[in-house]
From TrEMBL, chain A:
Gene Ontology CC annotation, any one: plasma membrane
Gene from which the chain derives: cysT
Subcellular location: Membrane
Gene3D superfamilies tied to this protein: MetI-like
Protein name as catalogued: Sulfate transport system permease protein CysT
CDD domains (alphabetical): TM_PBP2
Keywords: Membrane, Sulfate transport, Transmembrane, Transmembrane helix, Transport
Transmembrane segments: 38-71, 91-112, 124-145, 157-175, 207-228, 261-285
Function: Part of the ABC transporter complex CysAWTP (TC 3.A.1.6.1) involved in sulfate/thiosulfate import. Probably responsible for the translocation of the substrate across the membrane.
Cross-referenced InterPro entries: CysT_permease, MetI-like, MetI-like_sf, Sulph_transpt2
Membrane protein topology class: Multi-pass membrane protein
SUPFAM superfamilies: MetI-like
Main localization category: membrane
UniProtKB/TrEMBL annotation, chain B:
Name the UniProt record assigns to this protein: ABC-type quaternary amine transporter
Record CDD domains: ABC_CysA_sulfate_importer (cd03296)
Annotated PROSITE patterns: ABC_TRANSPORTER_1, ABC_TRANSPORTER_2
A GO CC term assigned to this protein in UniProt: ATP-binding cassette (ABC) transporter complex
Signal peptide start and end residues: none
The species this protein was found in: Nocardioides agri
All copies of domain ABC transporter, residue ranges: 3-233
A GO MF label: ABC-type quaternary ammonium compound transporting activity
Any Pfam family matching the protein: ABC_tran
Record InterPro entries: AAA+_ATPase, ABC_SmlMolc_Importer, ABC_transporter-like_ATP-bd, ABC_transporter-like_CS, Mo/tungstate-bd_C_term_dom, P-loop_NTPase, Sulph_transpt1, Transp-assoc_OB_typ2
Coiled coil: none
PANTHER family on file: SPERMIDINE/PUTRESCINE IMPORT ATP-BINDING PROTEIN POTA, SPERMIDINE_PUTRESCINE IMPORT ATP-BINDING PROTEIN POTA
EC class of the enzyme, as a word: translocase
Assigned EC number: 7.6.2.9
């Protein structure tokens, strides 16, 4: 919807006539309705599809959670098991997102800037954790880190396994977001900075990183959103031990299995709020950092 | 002193970009590296800046052997064809970058940025982002950014190549005037002979990785070392085994000079005040002659008229080589 409307605002990035006269200030007009009949139809179809798929189901969840009133929320949140599940989910997702921001950027860097044998294969394999059915991902990790671990690491059924599984399935997000942006960066911008005296580390921090921040935050948002909703790979690997390794989505399922739909909807709407909050925060961070220079 | 390049060779696989180039670029002057695309002039500039390393040979900048120095340590300003702006920084921040790297005091940086933006006529744009500037403005910003670190030499790689013809001409004049004010040793790369002749104190003609000739614009135009330089600096035509400029051909309706070639006019093309005439001589040469409109009208020239052509006295001529001139 915003894309359709932004056509009505002036393009701020337009080059300004050379010198002379006062700098012309780009005016920001109020969005007007500039839709042609064809565009109106397109917008209508897009909104209908979006509503059917996203808006209506989401509203339904919030509505059914709200039907129980505040008491419902208070009950759900004061239940230690639910609270622990929420805490675990959000903290592990946040931890994994931070790891992804660092590791994903490094992997993207290596894939774009370095030449090494097997690069093409690595480039393809990156997507496998995402493409694999998540239960299979759980199996794979269980084989390596489970009770029969060939390398002697017994992380299964501990909180570490939650982070491990989340890191596994969210690996490609930051990599795939950063990679194309890194490929598009002009070499001469870095050369310009070098000839002005900037060392490699300074060039990375002050020139390259600010250009990557929008991509990194976009990848981080996807990765966080995917992590808080993860279910399949955790079922096998974490053991779903209440208060220990049980995540929000598993907790919701057990509410539903017990017929407690209102409680499930309450947890769902809390997760929805968390996801929204994180996406907005990342957007703000991105705007700040990419401006700073 | 100045920039001394000795025996520099640079190859990319089989391609020889620079073939044993030796050259001295004088201090405080505006020097053009002129030549066709792919001739090695940009590579030479990048070798001076340290953005490329030469396979063999040495580069000395103001007495300091810079051959092994990284670009950060050479204290050169470099301006790129496509501006290479720092997109996320304001114009002022872009210009300040080099000084911030050098950890100069804040108020000194602010004062110098102010002064430089005034110099490049961008004062009122200091808080804009580069994306809000036109191409010519971005390139002026890039120039201010390069000048901010008080470089020993200023290197410009096809600085006006990405701009449209009108802006290019303005910036060319402006660069010349700027250089007269700042006097920093400046080297710029161009493939446009008019640009080089108009702006530079000295021109280095480079072709196929070799220096063909070094000299002032007049020297190059009046005494080209070979047919390549002659051909690259302007139009040529051949008459009796020599190359010369079409406006240096003397044309008459009667045999006035000994050795004049007889022929008939095959084509007359008028462009504004010029008239371009093609004469087919009886020896089989096709000679292009350039006359003013008035002169051509006086002689009553039109296709089929018998004429005699010869090199005018004082004309610049170069023996024609077997290979066609560029």
């Amino acid at each position: 919807m915003s894309a359709a409307l932004s056509g009505a605002t002036l393009d701020v990035g337009r080059p300004v006539p050379d010198d002379g006269g006062r700098p012309r200030r780009a005016r920001r007009t109020k969005p007007r309705n500039t839709l042609t009949p064809g565009a109106g139809l397109g917008l209508g179809i897009a909104m209908l599809w979006f509503s059917l798929l996203v808006l209506v189901p989401l509203s339904a969840i919030v509505a059914s959670a709200a039907a129980g009133g505040w008491a419902n929320y208070v009950n759900v949140l004061t239940d230690p098991q639910t609270w622990n599940a929420l805490k675990l989910t959000v903290s592990q997702a946040a931890l994994v997102t931070v790891i992804n921001v660092v590791m994903g950027t490094i992997i993207a860097w290596v894939l774009v800037r370095d030449r090494f044998p097997g690069k093409a294969i690595m480039n393809v394999i990156i997507d496998i954790p995402f493409a694999l059915p998540t239960v299979v991902a759980g199996l794979v990790l269980l084989a390596l880190y489970g009770p029969n671990s060939p390398i002697g690491v017994h992380w299964a059924f501990t909180q570490k396994s939650v982070a491990l599984a989340l890191a596994f399935v969210t690996l490609p997000f930051v990599v795939r977001a950063v990679q194309p942006v890194l490929e598009e960066l002009d070499a001469d911008v870095e050369e310009a900075a070098a000839s002005l005296g900037a060392r490699r580390s300074t060039i990375f921090r002050r020139i390259i990183l600010p250009s990557l921040v929008p991509a990194i935050t976009a990848g981080a948002a996807l990765s966080f959103a995917r992590a808080i909703s993860e279910y399949g790979s955790l079922v096998l690997l974490s053991g779903n031990r209440p208060n220990e390794t049980e995540v929000a989505s598993v907790r919701m399922l057990s509410f539903i299995e017990n017929g407690s739909y209102a409680s499930a909807a309450a947890v769902a709407s809390i997760m929805l709020a968390v996801a929204l909050f994180v996406i907005v925060v990342l957007d703000i961070v991105q705007r700040r950092v990419s401006r700073r220079g | 002193m100045s920039i001394d390049i000795t025996g520099v060779t640079k190859t990319y696989g089989d391609f020889v970009a620079l073939d044993d180039v030796s050259l001295t670029i004088p201090t405080g002057q505006l020097t053009a590296l002129l030549g066709p695309s792919g001739g090695g002039k940009s590579t030479l500039l990048r070798v001076i800046a340290g953005l490329e390393t030469a396979d063999t040979g040495e580069v000395t900048i103001e007495g300091v052997n810079a051959t092994k120095l990284p670009p950060q340590k050479r204290n050169v300003g470099f301006v790129f064809q496509h501006y290479a702006v720092f997109k996320h920084m304001t114009v002022a921040k872009n210009v300040a970058f080099g000084m911030e790297i050098r950890k100069r005091p804040k108020d000194e940086i602010a004062a110098r940025v102010d002064e430089l933006l005034k110099l490049v006529h961008l004062s009122q744009f200091s808080h804009r982002l580069p994306s809000q500037l036109s191409g010519g403005q971005r390139q002026r910003m890039a120039l201010a950014r390069a000048l901010a670190v008080e470089p020993t030499v200023l290197l410009l790689d096809e600085p006006f190549g990405a701009l449209d013809a009108k802006v290019r001409k303005e910036l060319r004049d402006w660069l010349r005037r700027l250089h007269d004010e700042v006097h920093v040793t400046t080297v710029f790369v161009t493939h446009d002979q008019e640009e080089a002749m108009e702006v530079a104190d000295e021109i280095v003609v480079i072709n196929e990785g070799r220096v063909e000739q070094v000299g002032s614009p007049d020297e190059l135009y009046d005494e080209p070392a070979n047919d390549f330089v002659m051909g690259f600096l302007g139009e040529t035509t051949s008459l009796g085994g020599v190359l010369l400029r079409p406006h240096d051909v003397h044309l008459s309706l009667t045999p006035q000079e000994a050795g004049a070639a007889e022929g008939s006019i095959s084509r007359v093309l008028r462009v504004g005040f010029e008239v371009r005439i093609t004469v087919l001589t009886d020896d089989g040469d096709e000679v292009n002659v350039l006359l003013t409109r008035t002169h051509a009208r006086q002689l009553g020239l039109e296709p089929g008229v018998r004429v005699w052509v010869s090199a005018a006295s004082g004309a610049t001529t170069v023996p024609k080589m077997a290979a066609a001139a560029g």
